[in-house]
Amino acid sequence: MKQRIYQFTEEISRIRLGLTTTRKQTGQVYPQLLNRLQKVGDSFLNIEFANHCYLSYMRKPLHKHIAHHVRNAHRRITKYLYERDTIFATLWVFIFILMVKVLPLPNMHFFDPIEIALEDFDFNDITYSKLKKTVGDSLDQHIVIINIGEFDREGLAMLINATSSMGAKVIGLDATLEGAKDPYKDSLMRDAIERNKNLVLASRFHPGEGKEESVFTPNYFSTPETKNGYVNFLSKEWATVRIWNPFIKNEEHPDSQPYQSFATTLIQQYDPAAFETLKKRKHSTEIINYSRRTNQYLVIDGEDLLQGKVDPGIIKGRIALLGYINTNPEDIEDKKYTPFNEEFAGKSIPDMNGIVIHANIISMALDGTYINKLPLWATILFAVVIGWLHMSFFIHYYLENHIWFHLVAKIAQLISAILFVYVGMELFSRFRIKLDMTLTLVVIVLAVDIIYFYEAFAVWIHKKFGYTTVFHHKHH
Amino acid sequence: MRKFRFLLLASLITATLFSQDNNFMVYSFKGNVTVVENKVESKPKVGKMLSSVSSVKIPAGAVLTLICNQNAMFTIKKAGNYALNEFKDSCVVSAGSLSANYARYVWEQMTSHGEGAPGTNRKMYMNTVGAVSRSVNNIWIDPRLDTINYASGNFPLTWKSYSDANEFDFFLYDNASATNPIFKTTTKAMQIPITSILKYMKQGNTYYWTSAVKGENNDEIKVINYTSKDAYDNVLDQLKAAGPAYEGEAEQAFRIAFGLEDARYYSEAYQYYQKAANLKPDVWLYRSTMMSFKKDYDIR
Predict the structure, then answer these.
(1) What residues in A contact B128, CB-CB < 8 Å?
(2) Whole-structure pTM value
């Protein structure tokens, strides 16, 4: 205890010495030192006083310490919150972003490796690829995937019949059968299709470019009686499949039924109530809520099925998806990029077979676990509020502790990035709400640079028009 | 008293949790895996549910993948008999909370020091495939011997070697994924007569064979269908019936030989090629075809 008291008196002595040195050197009283000295008072040599101060400090409970620091932080953020300059500087951040977006500037990012690498980037992908989202979730009880391997049309026909005989409620064949092949095998295939009315065939939808008309290419075996759905996802070949178009308007006959995706038709056949829910949402695109990896679906080898190695009870009453599955990472046939990819940014290889993506879409619709994207205004509002708070905090340091400004700003940006990415991921993962955090993070990053610009701007209009600003007496 | 009640309640909850029966579902299997339920042994089926009192028998080379309580997948590769209640630990899946995983991820990223440079972390940088693999297997087996149908007669199972090896191992299996052969021999000749392995085979079954430089392994497996006499006769009758109305004996033998070769009955095809050549030795086509057949399949 005595040691501590001694240290305390030593510190007070140092303050005094500092005051003296400052006076001698500059002839002015350094305000901070004077403030501290005034608090201590003239009795700084009084041990009793020091003892009292130290003991009262020690007696302060933890929650009061925390409250003290929270009050400090609160003061730092809110001191300039309602200043005109803070509001205008925040506004300038958005004006700058708008200018970059709206003005017909040449594309200056064609050589930017970060821009190129992050073109297909979404923070929420981290939840799948790194944070083990979906690990531990149970097998889907509605869907069985049957691997068609290298089966030809004869083999597929046998597989359809065998699956149907095991009592599958709906069968989806994810294979685009284009054009005639061997007449004998084609006849077997046609027979299997005619016999199984619960079979959904794979078609393709080719969207037109510009004014070019879109084309829906039905399966070679499609007839007016067969059920179809387009299997292709309307995303770039190299991009992550995140969205799904359940319906696409028939441009040729706008009054007729829209085209349905493969998964939509399967949902319609399996669970009409889930299909109605999907229709009522009236979303032209849905964000896919991936809930399972390949091994979280029961995947049966087609040959095992034909050889009677499968318990029929596992297929009865379920959706049987017949598609190509290969878990070998070097085999990328019919594989797409999904948020499960280990590399969530930059170069990588496709990671999930198309049939598993269809299965995930169906799981989402049957479980009713759709993802709701917050509207643009909510995203902007969130970015404005967060940007405003950051601007106030940055201006406080800019004006009052400029020596620490850059260090504090960088640390604040890092902490904010970590925090807001987490908030976005929690919303996505726990509440199935997608809030795009990109704008918020861009605002936080730009806020620091905009302060310098705004300071110059504010000083200029102060000189020109007498505009009152907190920056007018500061020069950095 | 209150503490005692609390303790009793906690014990009851713990006991209930631990006494919960796990159920297992057969996800996939390879090889002759068997399941024992109520002392009855049976072949498993994909999707079959097993209780924790069941047991499984895994022979050498077989693999069984199970899913416990619909969410924990594990694979048994090691040969042996296992009671499923031994796998209680495998039923626990711990993915951790999103917040904890995120905190761990951020910490790992902030404290990682990159992957080093090529000079300091060669394992990371020298890990590319480099080039296509053509394997180090020094044995070449004619693709026409991929599948052989056999009913009677003699025919050599041949191979070629690009190494200087003098001795070769021959393996015969009764299962494509088996690791223990039913017959193994070492030979200096790069062929083995099919008649020498007949005693290990039963008609109507399929067998698998391969050869390798002595002491080495070869993953390339070939198939022998040891067909029943009836099955062969059926093929032969079809070939005979497919001929024209007027056909000489030699012509018929030559046509049947061609058909049998196409149907991969090589031993039988050879007998008919010989028959055609013997019946009409002056027909150059019959003789030359037989000679080239002998050459192609290394019949000595």
Answers:
(1) none
(2) 0.69
